[in-house]
Amino acid sequence: MNKFKAIVMKSKDNVATVTEDVEAGSDIAINIDGETVTLHVTDRIPFGHKVAIKAIAKDEKIIKYGEVIGMATTDIAAGQHTHVHNIVGCRGRGDLVSK
Q1: Rounded CA separation 56/63 (Å)
Q2: Does residue 37 contact residue 66 with C-beta atoms inside 8 Å?
Q3: Which of 61, 71, 79, 96 has a CB 3.0–4.6 Å from the CB of 42, allowing a cystine?
């Protein structure tokens, strides 16, 4: 059985995807570029959802797969559930296009 409960796809990612339900207050191991890091999880995170692996400031980009997938709508602490309640997608949004 894999000791890692979350996957980080690229070293520049600031979120990981959990591979099983994780309870609030848990410490989980994640692998970042071959290094095992322990992350204290502050919220219950359902299978397949994201967890912040470092502090993310409001309006900062959410990076998964080495790509920007959204923007933080509030400050997000390391170990916090990162999903539609605190991020917004930014791809294909004409209102965010620079002029």
Answers
A1: 10
A2: no
A3: 79
Distance in angstroms (rounded) separating the CA atoms of residues 36 and 9: 14
Dist CA 54 CA 62 (whole Å): 11
Average pLDDT over the chain, rounded to whole?
91
Asked if residue 87 has pLDDT above 80, the reply is: yes
pLDDT band at 19 (very low <50, low <70, confident <90, very high): very high
Max mean pLDDT among 32-36, 39-43, 89-93 falls in: 39-43
